[in-house]
Amino acid sequence: MRVESYVLPVGADKPTLEELQAEGGIARLQRLAESWEPAVQLAAETVGPAASFAPVAEQTSRLVAKAEDGEGAADVAAGSVYPEPARTMTYEECRNGLGADKKFFIKSRFAVCSGATFLQTWFRNNRPVGESMFNVRTVGTIAAHSREIKFQYYFTEMQSTGQTATSGMKITTTGAMPKSWPAGVKYDLGGNLPKAAKSFDELKLARTYLHTVNAKPGQGSSGSTDLVFTAYEPSISITAPAGWRLGGALSGKLFMLAPRWDAAPYLANSTGGGNPAKKGAATFSYLPTLAYSAKAGAPERAVAEHLRTAFTNPGDTKPEMAAKKVAGQVANEPLHRLVDPKRKEENRKAAVKQCKRYWGDNYSQGATRECDEYPFATTYEGAAQPDYDGDARKFNFSVKPVAKEDNGAAGSLLLGFYAKNRLIDGLEDGFLVQITS
């Protein structure tokens, strides 16, 4: 007797347990497993060193890190700020977010999940006599100003049919960090994730376990920013019960998640409230999306309309440039936050120079308008980029005089977005921009 095991994405087009009774169903499983397991391991939106560690998805994740219908438009006059990103995720949200076609669900930089399906075919005398399956989903969440990352494991849809011995089939669950940057980082681990194998039936009854991971400050790179990156990899291994011989894949790995820790002095909790062991915080190293609303009444509307033109009709923007394409629209060409005040000022001066070139010295119309620029002056892709990067294309940006109030509202939203999403300076982080109606 033997058991064959297959690992597939949660939403893969899998045969039913009944279909597995037929050889065609088993062959289909084999093809699906072979095509999936060597492929994607990290989300398309991954940034930092983890993005070069393992294969990255071409397909975008399911994202809810955007504001729609004015939700993200802060009423600056009323004192509102950029909304807080989500920091919790229920099992149902993870299940529905992954759906039938996504490998990753990113609710925010502080709430993410992935999952996989494990199917077993039970054989006797080289003929299938039973089937079993289970799904594993891992939800990662981070509380505000916390260095602790919580990974909640859910074992669900646990089914069997025909002749099986699930009470004796042992399943070992681990959450490992196969690579860290810098190397040698020590992690504090907690929670109740079983260290010993549990049977299929025990996991079906327990359903969920918690694994916590914390990287203490002082182990990172980039000076006071104290950066630590890692790849977190949940994995499953299966041991056949006595009297059954196991064939096929005996283990499988879920998609990796990409945690990051920092203690940047320009971000919240940089002192830990006086406790050095708690300074800084964790996030997941994925591109967040800044949403500007072009909806009537949105305080940043004029800026949103300018950016929409830069995205969809760059030839209609100033300064003139052939084949203009501004960054921040797709995952492989994000924007990167800039903290250096000198370079930010040079970006602004380069942008204002073009506003004066095309609209004259009185482009402000009596200080009622300001020179709006994209990419933002607070990014490495700002108007002065060619002065620092010999490969950057000159005039690959857009400027336009817009109402002072709209520009101020958009600027306040941008600063709040940086802070709430813990955007760090440099090319190891990044973000995208989206215009909503």
pLDDT < 50 runs, ≥5 residues: 65-80
The residue fraction in helices comes out at: 10-25%
Most strands sheet: 9 strands, mixed
Strand content: 25-35%
> What structural class results from the helix and strand content?
alpha+beta
Q: From the alpha carbons, calculate the radius of gyration and give it in angstroms.
A: 25 Å
Number of helices: 6
Average of the residue pLDDT scores: 89
Query: What is the terminal-to-terminal distance?
Result: 60 Å
- How would you spell out the order of helices and strands? EHEHEEEEEEEHEEEEEEEHHEEHE
Quaternary structure of the protein: single chain
Write out key terms for the chains shown:
437 residues, alpha+beta, six-stranded antiparallel sheet
How does this model look, in words?
The protein is 18% helix and 31% strand. By secondary structure, the chain is of the alpha+beta class. The protein is built from 6 helices and 19 strands. About 4% of the residues have low confidence. Strands 1, 2, 3, 4, 5, 6, 8, 10 and 12 form a 9-stranded mixed β-sheet that branches. Strands 7, 9, 11, 13, 14 and 15 form a 6-stranded antiparallel β-sheet that branches. A two-stranded parallel sheet has the order 16-19. The protein is elongated. A hairpin with a 2-residue loop joins strand 4 and strand 5.
Topology:
Elements: E1 2-9, H1 23-36, E2 62-63, H2 91-98, E3 104-108, E4 111-124, E5 127-142, E6 148-162, E7 170-181, E8 187-191, E9 198-199, H3 200-206, E10 208-215, E11 228-239, E12 245-248, E13 251-253, E14 259-262, E15 281-284, E16 289-293, H4 301-312, H5 341-359, E17 369-374, E18 398-403, H6 404-420, E19 432-436
Parallel strand pairs: 1-12, 2-3, 16-19
Antiparallel strand pairs: 1-4, 3-4, 4-5, 5-6, 6-10, 7-9, 7-11, 8-10, 11-13, 11-14, 14-15, 17-18
